[in-house]
Amino acid sequence: MVSIGRRYWRSFLPIWLFPIALFATLAMPGFPAHPAQYFFFLVFPIAGFCAYPALRRWRLGGITFAQMLLWFAIVPVLIWATMIFGIFGLASR
Questions:
Q1: Which of 53, 55, 75, 76 is the most interior residue, by most CB within 10 Å?
Q2: Which residue has the higher pLDDT, 22 or 1?
Q3: 85 pLDDT tier (thresholds 50, 70, 90)
Q4: How far are the Cα atoms of 15, 55, 69 from residue 28, in angstroms, in the given order?
């Protein structure tokens, strides 16, 4: 599993950076007033552009479904959780 991450890290890097971009949208002006528009016109297209290179490896048969699930879904969720809990954990002290 780790060898797949090392071999194809360039393909997975955009989806790993997506949680940072998702969190950054909260600081954009006008987000509290129009969150749905930001999601559909900004976050959703960025997610598609980030997902394409990672899913391409799976579609071409370079990795299995389990490997894709780990590197495409679980790792970004762990990055997001670390970022959110880290920021709110530090802010609550």
A1: 76
A2: 22
A3: confident
A4: 20, 29, 30
Alpha-carbon span 57 to 53, nearest angstrom: 7
**Are residues 63 and 6 in contact, defined by beta-carbon separation less than 8 angstroms?**
no
50 by Cβ neighbours in 10 Å (0-12 / 13-18 / 19+) ranks as buried
pLDDT band for 3, please (50, 70, 90 cuts): confident
Cα 78 from Cα 83, distance rounded (Å): 8
Amino acid at 36: A
Give pLDDT, residue 15: 94
Rounding to the nearest 10 degrees, give the CA dihedral for residues 51, 61, 75, 48.
Answer: 10
Read off the DSSP letter of residue 62.
S
Which two tokens mark 89? Answer: 């954990």
Q: What is the pLDDT confidence band of residue 91, given thresholds at 50, 70 and 90?
A: low
